[in-house]
Amino acid sequence: MSAQTPEHRLADGGSGAADPSIASDKTAGGQASASSEDLTKAGAESESNSNVLLGFSENASKTFFGFVDRYLIDLERLSRFKAKQSSMETVNTAHVKEASAFLASSSSSQAKKVTRYCETFGGVMVGGGLSELFVLLSTSKPSGVIIGVTFGLIGVGALLIGIFLGRD
Fold it and tell me: Which of 57, 64, 113, 156 has a Cα at 20 to 30 A from 138?
């Protein structure tokens, strides 16, 4: 991964050079090389011509590129990890696809955990309320507080289950 900002990577369609006139030459080893003067010039040009996405404010664009950069770093690290798990020295397409699928599914994992806990807690409340309801039916004079607590447990539990039921 090059040491360029996300704005540079996206501005040229991912080739790595923000400006075609600054595109670096390939060396004999296949690695891209650029002089420090070229990189300084590219940095100065990007500072003066701030890359703002169409329809985005400058702050929104910076925030967007920050998230893109974090995602790319996470994707690179996870792809390398998947390659090491496969006992391979190089990362191939399958590793990148697997890492991307994992990142996409784990991005909402916190919400899924909250949903699962709410559904579980709601189920326990409904079960406890129904159990208490059967006890109330077998007693001769149940108190108003016990009746209220019983139906409160059933109602709140059913509400927790119902709110989060279709969110998977």
Answer: 156
